Structures are given as structure tokens and as C-alpha cells.
Amino acid sequence: MRRRWYLLLVVLATSLVLPAGPAAASTDKSADDPEIVGGAPARAGEFPWTVHLSVGCGGALYSPTVVLTAAHCVGRSGSDSSIEVTTGLDRFHPTQRVRSAQVKRADGFTDVTGGNDWALIRLARPLTGATLPVAADTATDSGLFTVVGWGSTREGGAGTATLRKVQVPFVSDAVCGDAYRKAGYGFVASDMICAGKMDTGGIDSCQGDSGGPMVRRDDAGAWRQVGIVSWGEGCARAGFPGVYTQASRFAAAISRAAAAM
């Protein structure tokens, strides 16, 4: 399984042979941390709420002082000034940078295949720019989604310097869950949403994309976050779509947690 976490990818890059059976997930797809596979470079200002985390993950600005990311990208809840959060297309030449102040990891998170894969990072000071609302219901939880991140462009590859994007189609819980359960993984339909091409593969998030946003426009044309890059089997493999935390499932809990930080 792949987590889409860049640091883990770096550790495994020299001998990336995935074990059989379930694996943890992360903001990218590949081995354990994915990047955007089969996509294209993002344009300046196209996804202004996307941020890069120094731990090798992505995230989205929930508010000027709070970032929404994946639980598997961060440590336990509490004070934490170790994470640098940056904005801008080029992660090596950011337009803004700020340190974390506090982390709130979802209660009950143990492993990506067990669900609850979300977390909040409170920043030491506000970042300027747009924020990304979380989908409040399932109205946008189908159709064609967009995933953005700095992850690998191929399974086992290194992350990219420049933000990339890819469009991925919705895959039902029944189809996605069946594929992963047959492969020996856990799958929590209530907490997860899947996207990718079941028949051909070729497009996906990958290592390094973990924690980043999967988005779709609502009926008014505004972006809504419908998913958080979480896990998957390899990157862009046929028969194994990407698995994302279903944002609408946790919208109320995320709101309460952000208000309390």
C-alpha cells in the first residue's frame, strides 16, 4: 500500500519493493507516498489555498491560521513548532512561509486503512490568500475531481518542485472497497472516497501528495474540498484507484476542532 507521504518515500526510494498485503497510506500514491501521476503543471494562482508541509505532505488553508491535512502526516496532538508551511507553485522558492504552533490529529486515528485520516495544523501567524471550504454534504462527492500536489509523477519516483494537478473520476465505494478488500486491505466506506481509472489506471496522486486536497466545483462554481489524499496500492495502477478521506464525513468535526485551536 502507499501512503502519500514524501519522507517515507525518501527512505524507501533505493529499494522500493512493496510487500504483499495492506499498507499505510499517505498524500500521494506510489509506494507509500504519491505525487501527481498523469497530470500537468498548475498555473500561478490556480489553487491559492494549497500549501506544502516540510514533513513531505500537502495541505489546504482551512482558514488563514489553520491548515487541513492528513493525520498520517503529523504526530500526536499538542503544541508543535516543527512544521514549516509554505505557499507558492515552487516549493523550493515559496511566496510565504510560517511555522506551525499546534497540531490536532483526528481522534481515533490509528492507520490510514482504518479511517479518520485528517488533522489540523494551527499556524504561528496568519497566511494571506484564499481559503478552501470543506464540502458540508455529499452533493459534490461524485463526478470528476481535481487533485493537486508536489508528489511523484510515477510510482517510486521523486517529488516535483512545481505544483501539479490531475483530474480523476469518482469510483463507488462498492467497486473500490471490493478491490481493496480482495487485496487484503481494510476499507471504511463511511470515511473514504475513491477516484481514478479502474480499468486503465494512469492518473492518480502519489508519494508526497498525502494530506493535499481533492476538490470539485459546486453548482455555483466555487471550489469545495471533497477529499484529503490518504492512501492506495502503488500509484495509478489499474484496478486500484486512489483512496481519499471523505471530507464531508468529517466537516462538522473539523469545524469544531478548528474553533477550539
From TrEMBL:
Biological process annotations from GO: proteolysis
A GO MF term: serine-type endopeptidase activity
Cited SMART domains: Tryp_SPc
Signal peptide positions (record): 1-25
Domain (Peptidase S1): residue spans on this chain: 36-259
Gene3D superfamilies (UniProt xref): Trypsin-like serine proteases
Keywords, in A-Z order: Disulfide bond, Hydrolase, Protease, Serine protease, Signal
Domain of life of the source: Bacteria
Pfam entry (one): Trypsin
PANTHER family: ACROSIN-RELATED (PTHR24252), HYALIN (PTHR24252:SF7)
Protein name, UniProt field: Secreted trypsin-like serine protease
Species name: Longispora fulva
Lineage, uppermost ranks: Bacteria, Bacillati, Actinomycetota, Actinomycetes, Micromonosporales
